[in-house]
Amino acid sequence: MRHFPQSERPLKIAVVGSGIAALSAAWLLSQRHHVTVFEADNRVGGHCHTVDVGDVSVDTGFIVYNEPTYPNLTALFRHLDVPTKRSDMSFAVSMDQGALEYSGTNLAGLFAQHKNIASPRFWSMLRDLVRFYREAPAGIRGLDPSASLDEYLDGAGFGTAFREDHLYPMAAAIWSTPAIEIGSYPAVSFVRFCENHGLLKFFRRPVWRTVDGGSRAYVERLVAPFRDRIRTNAPVTEIRRVNGVVQVSTSTAEPEWFDHVVIGSHADQALHLLGDPTDQETELLGTFAYGLNETVLHGDERLMPRRRRVWSSWNYLSQSAAAGEARGKPCVTYWMNRLQDIPDKTPLFVTLSPLLRPADDKIFWQGVYRHPLFNAATLDAQRQLWSLQGRANTWFCGSYFGSGFHEDAIQAGLAVGESLGGVKRPWTVAGESDRIDVHAATRPPQPR
Predict the structure, then answer these.
(1) What pLDDT is recorded for position 328?
(2) In what residue span(s) does the Amine oxidase domain sit (predicted)?
(3) Are 22 and 15 in contact (CB under 8 A)?
(4) Cα distance between residue 258 and residue 253, in whole Å
(5) Which of 35, 107, 139, 161 is in Cβ range 3.0-4.6 Å of 125 for a Cys bridge?
């Protein structure tokens, strides 16, 4: 990765969006340059969204991280002195209103539904689960990178029960993607992700942590150096590149001119904002699609497994078509009391795409989050995304540069900040940009 030397004068840079990718770029760039952040919403943070329920702060988007696989986020927290505490990452499945239920916490959770003990399908799932955890890392060696997870599982002889009752629900909960689409994900990337995140370990899994006081506690620290240069309720309507400068138009003010623009929006939104996209921008950014997940913070226990002994931090719920509901977006309920160490006196759940609407008097907040969907085409596009950087004074960053998670977003934002601004993140970690494909970018023109 190339770092550009300091400009003759500070650059005037527009940053569009205020998710972690955009904010990490703005934070780094603000140390040397004049940064203006444009945010369409009335708050900053994107998926870092903390809601107050009484005297309790509850996260509804970004919730947990672990230090081994989130090295830059961990370093940022230490640099900003962000308080964190230990979390829990147990997982449960509940299908067809409890017709099948289990959790992976312990034997009591696995067999909380007593009929599982005598179920051939359940034992088939467990056998394949153990085999997948042991064999998958070696099994993908030499596999065509474009081969789908379905193709790998078929070739290795993994059964339907393992896929439908464990692997696809687990992956759907992680990626906020319909379980039916998980099989099209490239097998090599899927297994490597699971291995890197410790998901294929039976023991000594990484310790997961959460921000004490909610994720806004770290957003507030992050934006402190440039808080007065953030414009909320300022949706960008168009970005045009003209004669070596960039024009940014909003619905609330006259167009402004900048030396460069950093677009930290989702890939499809970034493409939509460009008034004069190049063929390459259209091709690469247009490859990415997004799923919309209705998200509700509530206290309705009907959106948890029926058996209390199965309750886990992450709970995947599904309703088959035979039971009257078409399969589609994943319904996942996060038990926030356990995830964020909140007293149980007020049950608090965050549910994505709820199978039924929580009782109105138990809803504390509701909104919509967008998550990137990945397949072989998007992974191929990711390998070329960095070639867009700096061309026509335009830079892109977001979680879509990697696997769609917080560390992917921060790696993309920091890499843009370093390449554009001639500044360096104030820490050193192994593999600082190893979750995104970074290579030499076009040198930005120096201001005159």
Answers:
(1) 57
(2) 23-277
(3) yes
(4) 15
(5) 161
128's tokens:
């394949």
- Start-to-end Cα distance in the chain: 25
**CB crowding 12-49: b at 16 or more within 10 Å, else e:** bbbbbbbbbbbbbbbbbbbebbbbbbbbbeeebbbbbb
* Burial label, 326 (beta-carbon count in 10 A; 0-12, 13-18, 19+): exposed
CB of 47 within 8 A of CB of 62? yes
Structure tokens at 438: 């970074």
Question: Half-sphere exposure of 49 toward its Cβ, with a 13 Å CA cutoff?
Answer: 18
Tens-digit pLDDT profile for residues 260-283: 999 999 999 999 999 999 999 999
Q: Are 296 and 272 in contact (CB under 8 A)?
A: no
pLDDT tens for each residue of 142-198: 898 889 999 999 999 999 999 999 999 999 888 888 888 899 889 998 998 888 887
DSSP 439: -
CA distance 176 to 173: 5
What is the C-alpha separation between 54 and 215, in angstroms, rounded?
Answer: 17
Cα distances (Å, whole numbers) of residue 259 to 35, 163, 242, 244, 262: 10, 50, 10, 8, 10
- 11, with CB counted inside 10 A (0-12, 13-18, 19+), is buried
Contact 270, 263 (CB under 8 A): yes
- Strand 34-38 and strand 230-231: pairing? parallel
**Tokens standing for residue 317:** 């719920």
Sequence-separated (6 or more) residues with CB below 8 Å from residue 230: 18, 37, 39, 44, 223
Buried b vs exposed e over 245-272: b needs ≥16 C-beta within 10 Å? bbbbebeeeeeeebbbbbbbbbbbbbbb
171: CB partners within 8 A, 6+ apart? 177, 179, 182, 185, 190
Q: At what angle do helices 187-196 and 120-139 cross, to 10 degrees?
A: 90
